[in-house]
TrEMBL record:
GO terms for cellular component: cytosol. PANTHER family: 2-HYDROXYACID DEHYDROGENASE-RELATED (PTHR10996), GLYOXYLATE REDUCTASE 1 (PTHR10996:SF257). It comes from the Bacteria. It comes from Desulfomonile tiedjei (strain ATCC 49306 / DSM 6799 / DCB-1). Pfam families: 2-Hacid_dh, 2-Hacid_dh_C. The lineage of its organism: Bacteria, Pseudomonadati, Thermodesulfobacteriota, Desulfomonilia, Desulfomonilales. GO terms for molecular function: glyoxylate reductase (NADPH) activity; hydroxypyruvate reductase [NAD(P)H] activity; NAD binding. InterPro entries: D-isomer_2-hydroxyacid_DH (IPR050223), D-isomer_2_OHA_DH_cat_dom (IPR006139), D-isomer_DH_CS (IPR029753), D-isomer_DH_NAD-bd (IPR006140), NAD(P)-bd_dom_sf (IPR036291). Residues 5-321 form the D-isomer specific 2-hydroxyacid dehydrogenase catalytic domain. Keywords: Oxidoreductase. This is Lactate dehydrogenase-like oxidoreductase. CDD domains: GDH. Residues 110-288 form the D-isomer specific 2-hydroxyacid dehydrogenase NAD-binding domain. Belongs to the D-isomer specific 2-hydroxyacid dehydrogenase family.
Amino acid sequence: MIPTIFVTRRLPEGAMQVLADKFNVECNPHDRVLTREELLAGVKGKDGILPLLTDRIDDEVLDAAGPQLKIVANYAVGFNNIDLSACTRRKIPATNTPGVLTDTTADLAMTLLLAVARKVVPADAYARAGKYEGWAPLLFLGTDVHHKTLGLMGLGRIGFAMAKRAAGFDMNILYHDSVRADSELENKVGAKFVSKSDLLSQSDFVSLHVPLTPETHHLVSGPELGLMKSSAYIINTSRGEVLDEKALVKALQQGQIAGAGLDVFEFEPAIEKELISMDNVVILPHIASASTETRTKMGLLAAENLISVLVEGRRPPNCLN
Ligand code: DGY
């Protein structure tokens, strides 16, 4: 019998094709996040679920799916949307998509850093508005990126990829993590392990690269922002909840820090309204992994996880529990 899966949002075509070759695929027909009721109805009777970071997978969803459910294959490297212990209690493997989005995400983190430092977004808006009247010595003066200090909160896959990019800009690289990386890795990019407070007080740019866990919730809040230089910028491509958004607004309003580059938001898709009017903040709609190549690879990896369990009856390659 061909296994049946529920895909909570349409993926790039290459991935949908692989899924359709192996499974009876039921997919969210709408171009929007499913309501809770739609999600609960959609998973009913399925052998596998392929959810996104916008779908909370917990006891209620697993119960709604039924006892035949054999795998939850998340379409993301982050998996804070999945209650892993609820999966484990039912002996259901949960998987993610590590590795394939590392470089694409680091590219966007660097894009945000450069954009906010060099005022790319307001300068573009100014030129499009027909305001450009000729070269001027004081027009859109930003701050240099090269030879500045980058502080990485987290030197995992994406943090390290960001460090490689920063090394290409001759940046001085500091990092802090729960566990110190091995010296070979540090030496590859010249990254120096420092305390969290040294990282915050010495960096010109602080970039967040940690997963969302109870320990990293509000890892950066008022006191941490207070340690940063008034000329420093914060970049977040990890999860919105890692950075206390209300505290960020306050720090920006009070000039405690110079600006921010944000791809993720604490209560996304909602964004603190004060941020919207600040032209020292670059705001993106959670697109760090959004290239056609990477989003296809994420789908193929999720498919591989589903196939390993539902077709081959073996442990999935990216099992989280
Ligand atoms: C992830 O994979 O966790 C990103 O946030 C979306 O690609």
